[in-house]
Amino acid sequence: MVFDVSVALNLILFIALFPITFFWLRRAWRIVVKRDFSEVALKRGEPPANPAPYAPFAAAINMVGAGVILFVIYGVVVHQVEFDTWTAIAGSTIWMKFIADFILSRQAHPIVIKKRNKAGGTAGEAGK
Question: What sections of the protein cross the membrane (predicted)?
Protein backbone atom coordinates (compact mmCIF):
# COMPACT_ATOMS: atom_id res chain seq x y z
CA MET A 1 0.00 0.00 0.00
CA VAL A 2 1.39 3.34 -1.08
CA PHE A 3 0.68 6.30 1.19
CA ASP A 4 -1.01 8.89 -1.02
CA VAL A 5 -3.85 11.39 -0.77
CA SER A 6 -6.65 8.80 -0.86
CA VAL A 7 -5.06 6.74 1.91
CA ALA A 8 -4.62 9.89 4.01
CA LEU A 9 -8.25 10.91 3.52
CA ASN A 10 -9.50 7.45 4.45
CA LEU A 11 -7.31 7.46 7.54
CA ILE A 12 -8.85 10.81 8.48
CA LEU A 13 -12.31 9.29 7.89
CA PHE A 14 -11.47 6.37 10.18
CA ILE A 15 -10.14 8.63 12.94
CA ALA A 16 -13.21 10.88 12.60
CA LEU A 17 -15.50 7.90 13.25
CA PHE A 18 -14.54 7.94 16.93
CA PRO A 19 -15.80 11.46 17.81
CA ILE A 20 -18.80 11.05 15.50
CA THR A 21 -19.84 7.93 17.41
CA PHE A 22 -19.23 9.63 20.74
CA PHE A 23 -21.44 12.61 19.90
CA TRP A 24 -24.24 10.46 18.49
CA LEU A 25 -24.23 8.17 21.54
CA ARG A 26 -24.11 11.19 23.85
CA ARG A 27 -27.08 12.76 22.08
CA ALA A 28 -29.06 9.49 22.38
CA TRP A 29 -28.10 9.26 26.08
CA ARG A 30 -29.35 12.80 26.69
CA ILE A 31 -32.65 12.07 24.98
CA VAL A 32 -33.36 8.64 26.47
CA VAL A 33 -31.89 8.81 29.97
CA LYS A 34 -31.75 12.49 30.89
CA ARG A 35 -34.99 13.37 29.03
CA ASP A 36 -33.27 16.46 27.57
CA PHE A 37 -35.11 17.30 24.36
CA SER A 38 -33.15 20.47 23.57
CA GLU A 39 -31.43 18.81 20.59
CA VAL A 40 -34.46 17.04 19.13
CA ALA A 41 -35.54 17.98 15.59
CA LEU A 42 -33.62 21.25 15.40
CA LYS A 43 -34.45 23.67 12.62
CA ARG A 44 -32.13 26.68 12.45
CA GLY A 45 -30.94 25.81 15.95
CA GLU A 46 -34.42 25.90 17.50
CA PRO A 47 -36.31 22.86 18.81
CA PRO A 48 -40.02 22.52 17.97
CA ALA A 49 -42.72 23.80 20.31
CA ASN A 50 -43.39 20.25 21.57
CA PRO A 51 -40.29 18.07 21.00
CA ALA A 52 -41.46 15.11 23.14
CA PRO A 53 -43.32 13.26 20.34
CA TYR A 54 -40.21 13.39 18.13
CA ALA A 55 -37.73 12.37 20.84
CA PRO A 56 -38.02 8.57 20.34
CA PHE A 57 -37.35 8.97 16.63
CA ALA A 58 -34.34 11.21 17.23
CA ALA A 59 -32.98 8.77 19.80
CA ALA A 60 -33.44 5.85 17.38
CA ILE A 61 -31.71 7.72 14.56
CA ASN A 62 -28.74 8.49 16.78
CA MET A 63 -28.50 5.02 18.32
CA VAL A 64 -28.75 3.19 15.00
CA GLY A 65 -26.18 5.48 13.39
CA ALA A 66 -23.78 5.12 16.31
CA GLY A 67 -24.28 1.34 16.36
CA VAL A 68 -23.44 0.98 12.68
CA ILE A 69 -20.35 3.15 13.08
CA LEU A 70 -19.26 1.10 16.12
CA PHE A 71 -19.64 -2.03 13.98
CA VAL A 72 -17.45 -0.44 11.30
CA ILE A 73 -14.78 0.56 13.83
CA TYR A 74 -14.76 -2.95 15.28
CA GLY A 75 -14.58 -4.50 11.82
CA VAL A 76 -11.65 -2.33 10.79
CA VAL A 77 -9.73 -2.97 14.02
CA VAL A 78 -10.09 -6.77 13.82
CA HIS A 79 -9.56 -6.77 10.02
CA GLN A 80 -12.92 -8.37 9.24
CA VAL A 81 -14.24 -5.65 6.93
CA GLU A 82 -12.57 -4.84 3.62
CA PHE A 83 -11.44 -1.33 2.80
CA ASP A 84 -14.08 -0.55 0.16
CA THR A 85 -16.81 -2.01 2.34
CA TRP A 86 -16.10 -0.05 5.52
CA THR A 87 -15.67 3.25 3.71
CA ALA A 88 -18.98 2.71 1.90
CA ILE A 89 -20.80 1.74 5.09
CA ALA A 90 -19.35 4.65 7.07
CA GLY A 91 -20.04 7.24 4.41
CA SER A 92 -23.55 6.00 3.74
CA THR A 93 -24.34 5.94 7.46
CA ILE A 94 -23.15 9.50 7.99
CA TRP A 95 -25.19 10.78 5.04
CA MET A 96 -28.30 8.81 5.97
CA LYS A 97 -28.13 10.09 9.54
CA PHE A 98 -27.97 13.68 8.29
CA ILE A 99 -30.87 13.07 5.90
CA ALA A 100 -32.97 11.37 8.59
CA ASP A 101 -32.33 14.26 11.01
CA PHE A 102 -33.33 16.72 8.28
CA ILE A 103 -36.57 14.84 7.57
CA LEU A 104 -37.40 14.67 11.28
CA SER A 105 -36.78 18.38 11.77
CA ARG A 106 -39.03 19.24 8.85
CA GLN A 107 -41.79 17.02 10.26
CA ALA A 108 -41.51 18.69 13.67
CA HIS A 109 -41.60 22.22 12.22
CA PRO A 110 -44.62 22.36 9.89
CA ILE A 111 -44.90 25.10 7.30
CA VAL A 112 -47.41 27.69 8.40
CA ILE A 113 -48.91 29.76 5.61
CA LYS A 114 -50.13 33.14 6.80
CA LYS A 115 -53.54 34.08 5.44
CA ARG A 116 -53.97 37.46 3.83
CA ASN A 117 -57.00 39.64 4.25
CA LYS A 118 -58.82 41.17 1.28
CA ALA A 119 -56.84 44.42 1.43
CA GLY A 120 -53.65 42.55 0.59
CA GLY A 121 -51.93 42.74 3.99
CA THR A 122 -51.53 39.93 6.48
CA ALA A 123 -54.31 39.13 8.92
CA GLY A 124 -52.41 40.66 11.84
CA GLU A 125 -52.05 44.00 10.11
CA ALA A 126 -55.82 44.50 9.74
CA GLY A 127 -56.34 45.56 13.36
CA LYS A 128 -53.57 48.17 13.40
Answer: 6-25, 54-77
